[in-house]
Amino acid sequence: MRAWLVVAAVLSLARSAVAQNTAQHLEEYRQWVTQTTALSAPDVYRVWWNELIHECACSPLHRFEDLVFATLPGKEFRVPRQFGRARAHWAGGVWIVIAEAYIMDERVVKHELLHAILQTTGHPEIFGRLRLRAQDITN
Question: On the CB side of 31, how many CA atoms lie within 13 Å of its CA?
């Protein structure tokens, strides 16, 4: 299972690395991915996914079943090539990493699910409308 998770994550991130034309970026992500632990999505994640699709009237590119969840220990972690630390991170495609302390935090998980539904790293207006902006979910 661990090998499959690494392969899926690296393939998901390869598009970003190729776009930036940097092998170093891909290697940094590969090393980061090997530190994660596979996470079997709790049933409520599917409920939240469906709620988001309904609330934003979106047609996701991927099915919920395609998503790959992983976790890192603690309350936050550093994401390669980004400033600061994160509680969770949509790493592109179908891959979502969540800090262990926030695995069941509805707003944190929904924020990343919305990234996966919209396939965007940015925060369009819908994040604000659904109160899922980073500042909305900060305790």
Answer: 9
Rounded to an integer, what distance in angstroms lies between the CA atom of residue 101 and that of residue 93? 23
Cα separation, 117 vs 76, in Å, equals 23
Q: How far is CA 21 from CA 13, 17, 18, 26, 106, in A?
A: 12, 6, 5, 9, 35
Query: pTM for this one?
Result: 0.80
Residue 61 backbone phi and psi in degrees, to 5: -70, -35
Considering only residues 102 and 123, tell me which one the structure prediction assigns the higher pLDDT: 102
State the pLDDT confidence band at 4, using cuts at 50, 70 and 90: low
